[in-house]
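Lab notes, practical 5.
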Amino acid sequence: MKPLRELCGGELPRLVMFDLDGTLIDSVPDLAAAVDRMLVEQGRAPAGIEKVRDWVGNGARVLVRRALADGLEHAAVTEAATEEALARFLEIYADCHALTALYPGVHELLEALSTAAVELAVVTNKPERFVAPLLEQVGLGGYFRWIIGGDTLPQQKPDPAALLQVMHLAGVDAGQSLFVGDSRSDVLAARAASVPCVAVSYGYNHGRPIDEEQPSLVVDSLAELL
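Output from the prediction step:
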């Protein structure tokens, strides 16, 4: 795990925090199915998977607002419309996980880190109630000591609060920690927490190359960290 040692002063990190959607799991097929069903029920045209892929990453509320606006910019969407659509989207998505799958290299990296006694956490903007069941479904249920969802704390990424909370719980400082994500929000949160950030190139970053955000390292597969 030489790349990890190089990012943490020659030693393995004591704590590695991971984003979920677009980093560990490809959840867009299920998210798109739930979004499209919600839109159709409202008499709107379905968005389709490619649009939804660009819209995810900032939590369920923003995803729904973008779906209602049919674009990344969603300032014109009212709170009343958001609340109604969000409630229905969450109902649909609760039973819509059949197409979610692990990315290559994820299990191998988590197994190696666990074997090396590195503490692991998930920090995601997805509502917390969906996270543990999804991890169980894809075979990752036993790896993570801490799970911080998008509604666990008042703040979401790119705010660093969730990363700082996990480091506090683990008793680990920023120099012994690492964050792995796929989006601008992930890179900004890690930077604000003074934590090195590994970004994956295959994730969801609103259609932009993740290297534009200048993370500490970009990889095409988490297996590269081995």
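Observations recorded by the TA: The radius of gyration is 17 Å. Residues 79-93 form the longest helix (15 residues).
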